[in-house]
Write a structure and sequence with these properties.
Length: 121
């Protein structure tokens, strides 16, 4: 799992309308953070948005499966779904999906006790 500098630059441009998005290396890939919340991950130059029961159907309709990793002998699925390829050519729509992923991260953060919340906005 990795994030090439060129792909990070490309994503940075797409995320620009959100403002204040940063990348943090993690597990060989990168987490994408906004206002203290991780709302996307990048693995092998593939972007995955945070998803939940409110957005799973949209990802399913686009044929976008979950981020899966192996922990021998098991495979674990996560709450992140692959970003639809078409979004890379539709910056406005990309921003809509990124904001939905951030909203998912916000809802997850609000479920935590106040002392464990990460939202900084």
């Amino acid at each position: 799992m990795s994030l090439s500098p060129d792909y990070q630059d490309f994503l940075s441009e797409l995320f620009e309308p959100m403002g204040g998005v940063r990348f943090r290396k993690m597990f060989g890939g990168a987490g994408v953070f906004h206002q203290g919340l991780n709302f996307a991950i990048v693995a092998d130059d593939t972007l995955y948005f945070k998803a939940d029961e409110t957005t799973f159907a949209e990802f399913d309709a686009e044929g976008c499966g979950p981020f899966v990793y192996s922990t021998d002998p098991y495979k674990a699925m996560t709450g992140y779904r692959m970003a639809p390829e078409r979004l890379y050519d539709e910056p406005d729509e990309f921003t809509v999906w990124a904001r939905k992923a951030f909203a998912v991260a916000m809802r997850a953060d609000l479920k935590k006790p106040p002392e464990k919340r990460r939202f900084t906005g």
